[in-house]
Amino acid sequence: MIWEAPPYRWPHGHRAAACFSVDVDANSPYLWEQRAQMPGTLARIEHRAYGMRRGLARMVDMLDSLGIRGSFFVPGVVAEDNPSLLPGLVARGHEVALHGYFHELVGDITDAQFTEALERSLDLFETQTGERPRGFRSPAWEMTPHMLAELHRLNLWDSSLMGHDLPYTIGGVTEIPVRWDNDDAIFFKFLGAGDRPPRSPLEIGATWRHEAEAQIDDGGLFMLTVHDWISGRAARIAMLREIWQDLADNPDVWVATCGEIAAHHATQTALEVAPTLPRAVNERDSR
Amino acid sequence: MIWEAPPYRWPHGHRAAACFSVDVDANSPYLWEQRAQMPGTLARIEHRAYGMRRGLARMVDMLDSLGIRGSFFVPGVVAEDNPSLLPGLVARGHEVALHGYFHELVGDITDAQFTEALERSLDLFETQTGERPRGFRSPAWEMTPHMLAELHRLNLWDSSLMGHDLPYTIGGVTEIPVRWDNDDAIFFKFLGAGDRPPRSPLEIGATWRHEAEAQIDDGGLFMLTVHDWISGRAARIAMLREIWQDLADNPDVWVATCGEIAAHHATQTALEVAPTLPRAVNERDSR
Amino acid sequence: MIWEAPPYRWPHGHRAAACFSVDVDANSPYLWEQRAQMPGTLARIEHRAYGMRRGLARMVDMLDSLGIRGSFFVPGVVAEDNPSLLPGLVARGHEVALHGYFHELVGDITDAQFTEALERSLDLFETQTGERPRGFRSPAWEMTPHMLAELHRLNLWDSSLMGHDLPYTIGGVTEIPVRWDNDDAIFFKFLGAGDRPPRSPLEIGATWRHEAEAQIDDGGLFMLTVHDWISGRAARIAMLREIWQDLADNPDVWVATCGEIAAHHATQTALEVAPTLPRAVNERDSR
Amino acid sequence: MIWEAPPYRWPHGHRAAACFSVDVDANSPYLWEQRAQMPGTLARIEHRAYGMRRGLARMVDMLDSLGIRGSFFVPGVVAEDNPSLLPGLVARGHEVALHGYFHELVGDITDAQFTEALERSLDLFETQTGERPRGFRSPAWEMTPHMLAELHRLNLWDSSLMGHDLPYTIGGVTEIPVRWDNDDAIFFKFLGAGDRPPRSPLEIGATWRHEAEAQIDDGGLFMLTVHDWISGRAARIAMLREIWQDLADNPDVWVATCGEIAAHHATQTALEVAPTLPRAVNERDSR
Fold it and tell me: How many structural domains does chain D have?
């Protein structure tokens, strides 16, 4: 139990920080789910294709018009299938970072496969952009001690965990924390019968605005995560524009990329934790 | 990755388009689900019968009073069991189009069965209305390359996919895109314990209005899809009337049928895509 | 397909009707679910006991203060275990009607068991109140041709089906229709992990008010159904009081019991339907 | 069937009571679920760690600034793993009470194991705080006759059941009732794909405020239950602060701990019930 927050300071006298992050999944989670053989049907393919056809460009235009640089997490296969994606983002000044090669879910792969996917993604990004990416976000936001050790070995920051409102350090890796509450997929993703109906952008916009305001009052980080084919729709972009216009105009808020936040983190006294699992109940002393 | 939207122009100087479409399913999805033998219970039958008894007539009255022509997608069996349905819609100036014969779900049937259902529906429509229908919408909005090839062969437009905000062309077929977000069933359908409780027409009406406004601002197509027995209820019609009154009064908006939009599409430079499935992960080159 | 609504007239120049109905289930659905042997745990028992301890009395007090007589559907076992329930309701001027003996679900019992439960309930009601009940509502709102034949034989009206906005006649039985949309359980019932979280009384109150207004505008029947242990909570009663105060004050609205509506129905030209199941797909002529 | 509420009086002329209760679960439900062996993944561990790292301290700061003493229910293992937790809460004037040792779910353990967990927790609390706790809340709010007998033997009040709006007595044990409707977990808990998306603090805050107002009007008890790692987030604390500021300022409301309410209960004529299960349907006399 920690009774006091870390004495964190944001740069340039800002009171809080905000980051617009995009998980550019496109069809990669579906490719992974159907990795043995693709079904012969087109509805999901067309639905997800929306991001690369229209959604992501609309999102980037919105950010550019607000002067906000976003952090775009791109699975290797999405960069491979869309070779103008990474160069186009970098040319517009945005940050690109790693998100698995095939959006591999952690529970489906071995430690060695994780490492291979990470290194293969690093190589692809360097080839396509001429620069080595500096950060990583785990597909579906799962994490293991092995993954953290690899991120540490490769000197990558991470943005996948929820253990604080402020950046922290886990296993020596800088963690820029995320929140399910500030993720678009859990509210808006709908792929057919059986899924939960999407929530209104009006409701979620009001909720995220409230969340951002509370984080600013509290001096924390407001990290938003959206997806190309989900939030690239016109009504959601209209909602996002309203929120981020206000954040960009707010002198209390440092709107920054994950990479900028990670670089700043090195100057702060922050929470440091070990990636240790609690002992299981059955391993504890009985009375 | 496409960085620019197609240079689409709507007719008569309109900035955007809107289409009121109705999937007149009546009891056909339940008939299909229970196609081997009908259960001996009446609750679902009576619930769904509401559309043909009252809901659809109220919906048509609403459209007629606003001077809006809708696009009604009718499974063959619904036309067969309700012989005054297609003639009554046509007499009132509305468009009727195909929606399977028994609302057959794509995953339940062979390619040959799809073709048979399509041709049988075409014949029934011609017999009942004296005209050949020009368009098709897939039950549950699934699609296959075979289906697109058949639609192309029969010179039918389609309205089942979600790959863009604007009409596009897929496998040579004109696609008038739909959206789950603008479908009434996912928000309002409730058939008994286990289903998700219906959302408020107040909330969904505000959401659809916001969606329509964003599409208009963006120059796209606002396609709404409702069902006879779901949105024919008085409170939902009251909500729909408010939205569509405003759309009908808005000089920026071209309120049109799918068929009118498909005819206009032939004059535009638009996105053209092939109905190709991405390669499966396991079929890609390993490193 | 019916293109015109029946020429229904409400009495005394009223434009529409409204009925406050209560399914006084108490613990009976749980007793039925666990009919072989009760689990040894108390949480659900205590939760459902709320209705007989406090909720129903608060609901009756609210109705009495508004001068509204409600229709209370009571399973036999609830009347048996709470012998002051039926006499207390009748003494306050409310209508009591049948709702199964053990809240038997239609799919769990034979035709003969349905008849036995119905007759046993009739006897119990006569014993406890001195009067024969005139109407029935099916547990979980399921129905069969046999049930309708039995209701017809015993000269009971029914209130379980959703085939119209107006009372209608099915198999010779007067049907006072219900709606899932106007049922409290689907929005508010929550019995533990795995259930859907309850909706806000603020939201549902606004939705029901909107629904009632639309039904009044349309000249139909606004039938609300609530449960003793669900809507007897203070915040829900506060919400219900606001809606029903306005309905009671509205000269356009005839606030009546199911029995009064059923009696009026005999004077009207209304929809009459047979309790016939549609032919199954596989029983229809192939092409 | 009880037609009248008990003649309950709150102290000092207050019209109603309100209690801010916290189930300090931290990672204990996950430890219990995975009691055989902990999975090797970190996402849930980090997510739940938020409470002990930041959430609970923010919550306590909020209560302290409003001058409200809360009732904190702490599983033994959480106190064991966070030795400054109980002393810190007691030092700030809050009440601490029992909540199982490993957050054992009632259905997973024997009567003897319940007793052992209860006594082991009592000992731990005495060791860490120097005082014997006076009350208990069951993990997941389940209850059995054995548990009530043990609470009675050890002279502990309980706060786990939903049988009334007012405190009552069951099996000789004072019951300070809870409500699912006023629990944060069912609205806000989200741990990954498959869970229901969290509701907005704006919506739930308005709902709880409405609930509190209705309970006050009715003279009952408004019991709120929150969790360290769920409602410790900034936006939820902002919402809670607004509600509880108003409750603290309202002269009609007695803001009290469970222990204070239990002590007051001894002075009142209240509902007394036996912890008796109803007879099963199959054990009842057939006709």
Answer: 1
pLDDT category of residue D158 using cuts at 50, 70 and 90:
very high
Global pTM?
0.97
**Could you tell me which chain A residue has the CA closest to the CA of B142?**
A43
Q: How far apart are CA C30 and CA C38, in angstroms?
A: 9
pLDDT band at D193 (very low <50, low <70, confident <90, very high): confident
Per the CB < 8 Å rule, is A140 touching D192?
A: yes
* Residue B276, domain member (yes or no): no
Percent of chain D with pLDDT over 70: 99
Q: Which pLDDT score, from 0 to 100, does residue B279 have?
A: 94
Using the predicted structure, report yes or no on whether residue C193 has a pLDDT greater than 90.
Answer: no
Nearest CA in chain B to A59: B3
ipTM of this predicted structure: 0.96
Tokens matching residue C254: 């005839």
Domain range holding A192?
11-276
CB contact under 8 A, D210 and C200: yes
For A238-287, the pLDDT digits (tens) are 999 999 999 999 999 999 999 999 999 999 988 999 999 999 999 997 66
Mutate one of D110, D150, D281 to test the C interface: name it (highest C CB count within 10 A): D281
Q: Which residues of B touch A201 (CB under 8 A)?
A: 207, 210-211
Q: What is the mean pLDDT of chain B?
A: 97
Residue D86 lies in a domain: yes
* Chain B residues within an 8 Å CB radius of A58: 5, 218
Say if the Cβ atoms of B1 and A84 lie within 8 Å: yes
pLDDT at B10: 98
Out of B47, B54, B192, the one facing C165 most closely (by C-beta) is B54
Mean pLDDT of A126-152: 98
Decide if C277 and B85 are in contact by the 8 Å CB cutoff.
no
Retrieve residue D27's tokens.
């990672």
For residue C250, being part of any structural domain is answered with yes
Residues in chain A closer than 8 A to D193 (CB atoms)? 140
Q: Which residues of C touch B34 (CB under 8 A)?
A: 280
Q: Tokens at residue D90, please?
A: 């007691």
Q: For residue A233, is it within any domain?
A: yes
Q: Can you give the CATH number for the domain in which A101 is found?
A: 3.20.20.370
Q: What are phi and psi of D76, to 5 degrees?
A: -55, -45
Q: How far from C171 is each of A120, B41, C115, C269, D188, CA to CA, in Å?
A: 70, 14, 17, 16, 48
**CA nearest to B55 within chain C:** C164
**The pLDDT of residue D185 is above 80:** yes
